[in-house]
Sequence to fold (277 residues):
Amino acid sequence: MEQAVTYLLVKSKCHVLPTDLDAVARSLRVSKITYGKIAAEGFVESDNLGGYQISIRIDRSLQRRRFSLAHELGHVLLNRMMDRPDAAISRQYRAHAQVAAKLDEEAIVDYIAGMLLLPPWALTRSLPESFSMQTVTQLARTAECSLPTALIRSIWQATSDCFAFHLRATRGRENSLRVLWVRTSRSIDHIDSLCALATLKSTGVIRWVVDGIDPRYCQDCDEGAIDRVQAMARDDGDQRIIYGIAWLHRTRASQAGLTRDKHLYQVTRGQNEGAAK
Ligand SMILES: [Zn+2]
Fold:
């Protein structure tokens, strides 16, 4: 899949950020992109001339519109790959698709969208030497994509054990803190969301959220399993949304109830029961 997207980007002459999605659309025979007041974030349909037409919801942020467009382009790419079983690019996809036959097409398309917005070359250029929230934020700005997209794309490039998280809490309600997603670096295969929350709690993230301090970064939280946390908070009504990266402290991870088993971190039963709600 990565090869297919890279091929598409090269074909569309997209060598700099932000990715010129209109150029990608032209390569994929998208004849028209319209922005209008529609209920969905976007959709794609055939134009009866062997091409496609895409509609994108207009009353959204630039980043959201770009993601929606990249997503619809992902559908087109998939569709074209399926239509041409003789192409090498298509065979590769099919092999990939069979392994993950149950994988939701929407998830695959989101993955393609992320790669279009932040191609592999863009990540390797700025990461992992200076892998931090600052770099990721800068990357998101340059790529004109959202911070979550940049985080999800970046985390895979991290060379030390860490995970990215997206938390949401209601102001003044300590117990409302929820993990919306967690993504792990390639040095860890998986970390579950309860584990992430339990681990983060040990660094005082909850206190930090509830106190209503408005820090850009919370660094060097040298407690428990966490070596370092960098996070950014923003308010959305009475909700507080927090994005961040937490680096794991290899030696102390086990003391804090994290056991590493075949690259898999799990909460040791019992130790974090109170926290893992
Ligand atoms: Zn879709």
Strands lie at 30-36, 42-46, 52-57, 162-170, 178-184, 190-191, 226-236, 239-248, 258-261, 264-267. The first helix runs from residue 2 to 11. Residues 85-102, 210-222, 268-277 have pLDDT under 50 and may be disordered.
